[in-house]
Description:
eight-stranded mixed beta barrel, binds ligand C2E, 24 helices
Amino acid sequence: MADVGARDRLVMAGLVVLGLLTVVAGVLSGRSTINYVLARDAREGALSWAAEIDKRLGEQDSPPPRLLDKDLQVLDAAKLRADGVSGAAASLPASPTFNTKGFSLIEGLDWLTMGWALSHIYRNHNEFVSKLDGFAVLSPDGTTLAVAGDLSPTSLRDLLGQSEGGAALAQAVSEDTVETVAIPGDAHNRLAFVPVTDGGKIARIYAFAVDQTAAAALTNVALTVVTLTTSLLIVMGFSVPAAIASRRIRERWLAEDQIRYLAMHDSLTGLPNRLQLHHHLDRAVARGKRHGHLMAVFCLDLDRFKDVNDTLGHATGDALLAEVAARLKESTRDVDLVGRLGGDEFAIVAENLDAPENAMRLARRVCASLAEAYHVNGHEVTISASIGIAIGPLDREPPDTLLKHADLALYRAKDDGRNTFRFFEPAMDAALQKRRRLENDLRNALRKNQLYLDYQPQFDLESGRLTGYEALVRWWHPVEGEIPPSTFLPIAEETGLIVPLGEWIMKTACAYATTWPLDTTLAVNLSPAQFKTQDVLGLVRRTLNETGLEAHRLELEITESILLQNTESVMDTLTRLDQLGVSIAMDDFGTGYSSLSYLTRFPVKKIKIDRSFIDTLGTSPQTSAIVSSIVGLGQSLKVTITAEGVETEGQAAMLKKWGCDQVQGFYYGKPEADVPESDKAPVKRPLVA
Length: 689
Ligand code: C2E
Ligand code: MG
Ligand code: MG
């Protein structure tokens, strides 16, 4: 924005210079105009006076001599000499009479814009026109033949120069011109010479002394007014439109600056946005290559920021992001660029590093700074960050590759437990490529019938009776072979494919379960993403209606992380499902937050102890204690307890001793595409809805 101020000042300075130039030009042209007007005035006066003199001389003689210029009579030199010039001159009227001869300086000014007003005011004031002070009649060689008024032979000689005949006269007079010369040292007086020819030769010259003091004053005033007015008009003519234009331009510049700023910055934090970051990265990589300096690109993501948004609201989330931005700026040098890539993702470009260790130190500093408690909107919030770091510049790769590498390293940092940083390694790139391929293939997997369901039996531990099956989704990839759900389900969740996939699983499993004995239940897993993006209640209702499976035979397995989402709506959905007759099982119990309060708040009918606990039963006294207390908890809450992943007889015996209700695991039965023939009609893989 500072640019606009500078540009404004430039425009104003331009206008001032233009105004000054106009005034200077006006003054200069005014001066030459004054000179021209005064010279012309004296010249016309001289002609008129010469005519008057000739006329008066002519009245004494006939025919009257004519002046060459203006068609006047030529004086007879012999007669003039005989009559005595001084006598003739003496008979001339005094100069004031000539003054009234009707030529007016002011008339000459009429054409000037403002001159007319003055000309009308002063038209009749003779003192404002050129005045005849005196005159002389000279022979062509400069000899004074006669003088009248204030012009004495001595003063005339002085004025014309010391030499007889005067250089000025020789210079000023040619055969057929009327010349005026300014009297040296006297700004407002001049001499006017009117040559009179006889037979093609100059017979004599009239020299007039013209007093132009008043005329010059008037001309000065008039021209000053005219000059100033014209200058003012010109300046106004320029400055008013210029001011309007400048204002418009200023507004446009401001708007453009604003747009440029918005296009390059993130509005919430004021940090450079992704676009600016890319521009900066291009230049930074070029600089690094030119000077042989190391640089680092950081991709930074806040851990579980969504929880802050969900629990404390978006306003607090926004305030937290602004505070994170401020801390990032504080933790970095001024030359480093901190940008926001969007959401809770930030990036840092640090140039001119001595060694990769510098990047590590910076990452530690950033992690420590961000981990300190925040006080936002009356809440105390703690949050950590995961950071991926790529070191550059890279020789052959485009600058963006550094950002991509940092992003891959960030994923690794997240995978490795968050609140940490990881440097990019080439293997990460290969993993990403594979993931991209899987993502693509998964989009087509449903359509190409590559997905199918396995069913794993669950048993009553006491009686050994089969109680039901858990449906487990499988993907048979044409090239990769069997892909475990732990690999493709997260991809499905991130890409939204979990919605059609979840629907297909529900319908396929329910349809298959209708072929089982009526007391055999079906357990279907629901991922947290389904609760976020899918109308689970609607899906279950529709499926039960379409397949005819009785609601009490369906069990939905959810994980504890579902309860961290919008509790109100999750609670509502679970309650309605419960009212429908569908039961809810808490899967993987013990691996999540294990807050016992939800066991009473939500309609949970079954707890499935995670297989990681069962795995160490008998080898770890702690897990034995945990599992036995979960079994005890289930008994007191009247919730069915199922142990997952039972693989050995010993594990089964311990569970039986503690009174665990149900078991599921390889010891009892592996997940199979078909339920055994004895349990109902087999279905060929892959299963299609
Ligand atoms: P889960 O719901 O806890 O499923 C039980 C997992 O333990 C299954 O792995 C099953 O094959 C495995 N398992 C069962 N008994 C044993 C045992 O004795 N030993 C060992 N080592 N493993 C045993 P799977 O099929 O790989 O499924 C992994 C997870 O993927 C499931 O955990 C579930 O969270 C998810 N999942 C599977 N199918 C679906 C599905 O259809 N929908 C959704 N949303 N998630 C599913
Ligand atoms: Mg399960
Ligand atoms: Mg489980």
